[in-house]
Amino acid sequence: MSRDTSGSPSKKPPLPPGMVLGPDGKPCKICTAFRHWKPPTDNAKQPPSANGTDGPSPSQQKTAAMMAAFASGTGFVQPQSQSQPAAQALAPKPVRPANCPPDVEELGRATWTFLHTTAAYYPEKPTQTQRVNMLSLLRALPVLYPCSVCAQHLGENMKTRPPDVSTRAGLSRWLCEQHNEVNGRLGKETFECTVEKLDERWKDGPSDGSCD
Ligand SMILES: Cc1cc2nc3c(=O)[nH]c(=O)nc-3n(C[C@H](O)[C@H](O)[C@H](O)COP(=O)(O)OP(=O)(O)OC[C@H]3O[C@@H](n4cnc5c(N)ncnc54)[C@H](O)[C@@H]3O)c2cc1C
């Protein structure tokens, strides 16, 4: 059991599911999906609510409703009165304007889109300058990627499996395998890393012309 500096058992509340800690040991917002993000103060034991019951306070209900809306993915939170039961407070309401900062998922999707698309348009026979620049771009990610936990994993992987910048196919496959490594850790399906599948997804679109 963890203990505080006085030697008594630590009263640290358990981490909410899905919340990711940064290297400083504090909850890392950009490493956490919005649906899992809950500021740490919300976990602390709250005083009884204003109406004298042990039920959630209005601000707790609001937070619960926001979290439910994040979880539902609808982004809609409905107005509520203070007398509504907590279950109704979980009903979805509009919460998340489109111009909110990205979470780990939005940032990830945008980054993968950029990287896979850049690889799909990388030359078949890159010049030395193109190779050097691509290598710099990829090597910068473990240093600069805002999700520090993601960056750390990528950096570890790159040590054992350095980027292949020699050809378009090599780079596309390397990125696909890196992405699959993350998919595996997150329990997602793996992508078939053939040039045909990668080109279809990131360059040409399906042969039925639905993306033309
Ligand atoms: C470098 C990096 C490291 C990351 N590390 C973490 C992490 O440690 N923890 C975490 O929670 N999140 C991490 N992420 C984010 C995570 O990978 C996802 O982007 C995020 O969870 C959103 O997932 P998604 O299901 O929307 O699709 P994404 O995984 O973002 O994929 C977007 C699209 O890419 C296609 N795709 C899927 N797999 C492949 C593949 N192997 N090759 C080519 N195309 C593919 C699919 O069509 C998919 O819809 C990381 C992102 C990056 C860029």
UniProtKB/TrEMBL annotation:
Listed Polar residues bias regions: 43-62
Disordered: annotated span: 1-62, 75-95
Pfam families: Evr1_Alr
Presence of the UniProt keyword Disulfide bond in the record: yes
InterPro entries attached to this UniProt entry: ALR/ERV (IPR039799), ERV/ALR_sulphydryl_oxid_sf (IPR036774), ERV/ALR_sulphydryl_oxidase (IPR017905)
Keywords carried by this UniProt record: Disulfide bond, FAD, Flavoprotein, Mitochondrion, Oxidoreductase
Cellular localization per UniProt: Mitochondrion intermembrane space
Cofactor: FAD
One GO molecular-function entry: flavin-dependent sulfhydryl oxidase activity
Biased composition (Low complexity): 1-10, 78-93
Full protein name: Sulfhydryl oxidase
Organism of origin: Dichomitus squalens
